[in-house]
Amino acid sequence: MSAHIIDGKAFAASVRSDVAKDVQSLKQKHGITPGLAVVIVGEDPASQVYVRNKVKQTSEVGMNGFHFEYPADTQEEEVLQKVHELNNDPAVNGILVQLPLPDHMNETAIIEAISPEKDVDGFHVVNSGLLATGGKGLVPCTPLGCYLMLKDHLGDLSGKKAIVVGRSNIVGKPMAQLLLDASCTVTIAHSRTKDLPAEVAQADIVVAAVGRPEMIKGDWIKQDATVIDVGINRIPAPERGQGKHRLVGDVEYATASENAGAITPVPGGVGPMTIACLLKNTVTATYRQNDIKK
Ligand SMILES: NC(=O)C1=CN([C@@H]2O[C@H](COP(=O)(O)OP(=O)(O)OC[C@H]3O[C@@H](n4cnc5c(N)ncnc54)[C@H](OP(=O)(O)O)[C@@H]3O)[C@@H](O)[C@H]2O)C=CC1
Ligand SMILES: Nc1nc(=O)c2c([nH]1)NC[C@@H]1CN(c3ccc(C(=O)N[C@@H](CCC(=O)O)C(=O)O)cc3)C=[N+]21
Predict the structure, then answer these.
(1) Which one of the ligands is nearest to 187 CA?
(2) pTM score of the predicted model
(3) Among the CATH numbers 3.40.47.10, 3.20.20.70, 3.40.50.10860, 3.40.50.300, which is that of 31-117?
(4) Ligand 1: which atom is nearest the Cα of residue 192?
(5) pLDDT (tens digit per residue) in 136-192
(6) Site to substitute for ligand 1 among 148, 191, 199, 264, most atoms within 8 A of C-beta
(7) What is the ipTM metric for this complex?
(8) Distance in angstroms (rounded) separating the CA atoms of residues 34 and 124
(9) How far apart are CA 50 and CA 46, in angstroms?
(10) What spatial distance separates the first Cα and last Cα of the chain, rounded to whole Å?
(11) Which residues are catalytic?
């Protein structure tokens, strides 16, 4: 059996269309245009596409976008200064500082400088704390996108066995938290996990967030499991011409599709949903900052 392909690109378009409606209503009823500020330091080539898509889609949904680029050798103090300025700017409802930051910067210090109400990435310790304790904060975009796709495809998730491979603060941990909140039985695997194939084989839901091209093999996947592939890996593709690359996920897609009930492709799966959820979080933040009920 060949798996159902979960179309993240189409789902993201529908999330953005809902966001655009909210933006319209905020403008018409309240005279507010949500604003998203993006701060980028240095030139990480993998981040460039992401940033381009963000800028384009921010204006497509009718929001204001503010874009700040700094060279890689900028002092941390200058970025902190900008974050403070954006915290105090009423036209800015959401702030995203693109990661990774150059090595000489303290990533944590910069993230914690963002006002939690404007932290549309959901990386601030206040927001991760709220997520961990069932509070109402802002949820990191990538896990939120994965969760929305799972809910849309499976409906009730309660009692399902889920495995999250990867335990980063930005993907793995918040993903596990969301699955736990949805009453899944959750395993979090990482580089020290003893028998990863055996752990994966038990799961009804597999979320792969490792950052290693196609490391989750297709024959590990339980029959009819739902597979969400967060990985975005650029690998050489000489078959497309000299120096060309292509994107692959963390899951061996062709073989996993034979076992899985449903699977997200790369590209066209989690990536577009991440950006859609960033816009969604910006609208959510705008409602809350202005004390408006949706
Ligand atoms: N689609 C999207 O919107 C986004 C995609 N990504 C992609 O998702 C992937 C993960 O990102 P991120 O969480 O930031 O990555 P990190 O590098 O921060 O974390 C990777 C995790 O994978 C674990 N890991 C590494 N090797 C193995 C292994 N052999 N077996 C099991 N676990 C392993 C690590 O374990 P340990 O903790 O033990 O070291 C770590 O917890 C990347 O491909 C990234 O590009 C990221 C953000 C957004
Ligand atoms: N503060 C911060 N927040 C982030 O959320 C964040 C970040 N920093 N740094 C980088 C990672 C990576 N990330 C992606 C989002 C969308 C796509 C995306 O749209 N991908 C398309 C493909 C794009 C292409 O063709 O290259 C897809 O998968 O279909 C990719 C990567 C967000 N990240």
Answers:
(1) 1
(2) 0.98
(3) 3.40.50.10860
(4) 38
(5) 999 999 999 999 999 999 999 999 999 999 999 999 999 999 999 999 999 999 999
(6) 191
(7) 0.98
(8) 20
(9) 7
(10) 42
(11) 54, 98, 121
Helix 270-289 and helix 141-154: axis angle, to 10°? 110
The CA 58 to ligand 2 mean position distance, Å, reads: 15
Alpha carbon distance 79, 69 (integer Å): 10
As its CATH architecture, domain 141-271 has 3-Layer(aba) Sandwich (3.40)
**Per-domain residue ranges for the chain?**
31-117, 141-271
CA–CA separation, 69 and 38 (whole Å): 8
Ligand 2, pocket-test mutation among 6, 49, 50, most atoms within 8 A of CB? 50
53 lines ligand 2 (CB under 6 A): yes
